[in-house]
Amino acid sequence: MALWGMVIDLDRCTGCQACVMACKAENNVPAVGPKEAARGRIISWMHVLREESEERTRFLPRPCLQCDDPPCTKVCPVYATYRNPEGIVAQIHARCIGCRFCMAACPYNAKYFNWLRYQKEGPGQNPDVSVRPKGVVEKCTFCHHRLQKARERARAEGRDLVAGDYVTACAEACPTRAITFGDLLDEGSEVARLARSPRAFRLGEELGTRPKVFYLAEMEGHRRV
Amino acid sequence: MSDAIVERDRALFGPLSETGRGFYLTVGVLGLAILWGAIAYAVQWSEGLGVTGLHQPVSWGFYVTNFVFFIGISHAGTLISAILRLSKAEWRRPITRMAEVITVMVLFIGAGQILVDLGRPDRMMNVIQYGRYQSPLLWDATSISAYLTASTFYLYLPLIPDIAILRDHLGKRRWLYAVLALGWRGTERQWKILNRAIAIMAVLVIPIAVSVHTVVSFVFSMTIQPMWHSTIFGPYFVAGAIFSGIAAIIVAMGIIRRIYRLQSYLKPIHFRYLGQLLLVMTLLWFYLTFAEYLTGYYGNEPEEMKVFWSKFTGPFWPFFWAMVVANFVIPMVLLVRLRHHAVGKTVVASAFVVVGMWLERFIIVVPTLSNPRLPFPEGQYWPTWIEWGELAASFGVFILFYVLFVKLFPIISIWEIQEGRDVGLKEVEERLLTYLPDGAADAAMPEREKVLT
Question: pTM of the prediction?
Answer without folding.
Answer: 0.92
